[in-house]
Amino acid sequence: MKILGILGAHKQTGLTAQMLAAVLAGVPTPHTVETIYLEDYHFQPDQVGQRDPVLDELTAKLLESDVWVLAAPTYWGGLAGKMKDFLDCMRGRLVRFDHKGGTHPDRFKNKHYMSITSCYASTIENWVTGVTDNSFRTIDKVMSAAGLIKIKELVLPGTLLMDKIPEQKLSQAQQLGAKLITKPKRDDNTMKRYIELFCMIAVMAFLTMGIQFLFHLITPGTFWLTYITFVLIFYVLLASILHFFTVVKHRRR
Ligand SMILES: Cc1cc2nc3c(=O)[nH]c(=O)nc-3n(C[C@H](O)[C@H](O)[C@H](O)COP(=O)(O)O)c2cc1C
């Protein structure tokens, strides 16, 4: 297997680069690794009838790799510009377009990826405010459109006064790198999620009606009949709404 690290950062040897290097260092032999530093590649979007040769070179590297590790710091609350520009310029190569302009996974379908970002914000600030959310979300959106399967994401918060990455973080990165070769299958837990939803509604309804019962708002004789019918009706309605918004609605666009 080949693991390709893609670094989109101002600094070639900065903290994000070191996190990427630690992940790749964890990849066991005989698997191979390669890192590309996007600042070294002066690509442009393809023009009609004229494909960009630098993008050709990068596309070949992407094609020959099984796992991509995309690493970019968080700038202005979003994905660093060079990585975003790379994903933007690669758009026409990452997906196939139908006659209505809709995008579909193409030749990179079922490859795997991992994402890494870093930020000045501390662990607690990032946990509360989600400073790095947009960076991960942008990568996930593009990768999902291209049909790639996510393995993991890794964040390095608190980089403001950091001159050396903590050992524990580096070893976490290496451990993740070691796992990159055991790729997960596409996540299709729809049935499991509907069962979980049913259990959540059953528990919450039981607690709610239990409280009502304690305060004599429900008569003892009708408790179980009311409870079972409430859970079933509420579950069917909620599952239908969720199905519409998450499955049916997407297909229309
Ligand atoms: C242009 C720019 C914008 C930044 N914006 C943010 C930000 O919005 N939030 C944040 O926590 N850190 C921000 N940072 C800090 C970077 O995330 C930080 O420089 C990075 O974690 C360091 O990684 P590096 O050593 O690989 O460059 C910004 C840095 C730069 C250069």
Automatic annotation (TrEMBL):
UniProt-listed SUPFAM superfamilies: Flavoproteins
Gene3D superfamilies assigned to the protein according to its UniProt record, in alphabetical order: 3.40.50.360
Alphabetical UniProt keywords: Flavoprotein, FMN, Membrane, Transmembrane, Transmembrane helix
UniProt-listed InterPro entries: Flavoprotein-like_sf (IPR029039), FMN_Rdtase-like_dom (IPR005025), ISF_SsuE-like (IPR051796)
Signal peptide (residue range): none
Transmembrane segments: 194-218, 224-248
Superkingdom of the organism of origin: Bacteria
Domain NADPH-dependent FMN reductase-like: 1-103
Molecular function terms, GO-annotated: oxidoreductase activity
Protein name, per record: NADPH-dependent FMN reductase
